[in-house]
From TrEMBL:
Keywords: 2Fe-2S, Iron, Iron-sulfur, Metal-binding. GO terms for molecular function: 2 iron, 2 sulfur cluster binding; metal ion binding. Pfam families: zf-CDGSH (PF09360). This is Iron sulfur domain-containing, CDGSH-type. PANTHER family: CDGSH IRON SULFUR DOMAIN PROTEIN HOMOLOG, CDGSH IRON-SULFUR DOMAIN-CONTAINING PROTEIN 3, MITOCHONDRIAL. It comes from the Bacteria. Residues 7-44, 48-76 form the Iron-binding zinc finger CDGSH type domain.
Amino acid sequence: MSNEKKYSPIKVELEKDKNYGWCTCAHSSNQPFCDGSHKAHNATPSMRFSVEETKTYNMCTCKLTSNPPFCDGSHK
Ligand code: FES
């Protein structure tokens, strides 16, 4: 499997004003969200975020984006 395939962005519908935790360490089994795996790996904690509009977002899974938690094309 190529890195590009493995780390493609994921489209997720996010709800306005709901609190989310974006995985920053890449160990989560529930990408793009944190599942607490960073604790076992002594890795970086999640980034808390919310959105101002309920819609589908293109979420980064490669962790290289300059606009977390959203994909900015850096995975290519
Ligand atoms: S998945 Fe596209 S920038 Fe990370």
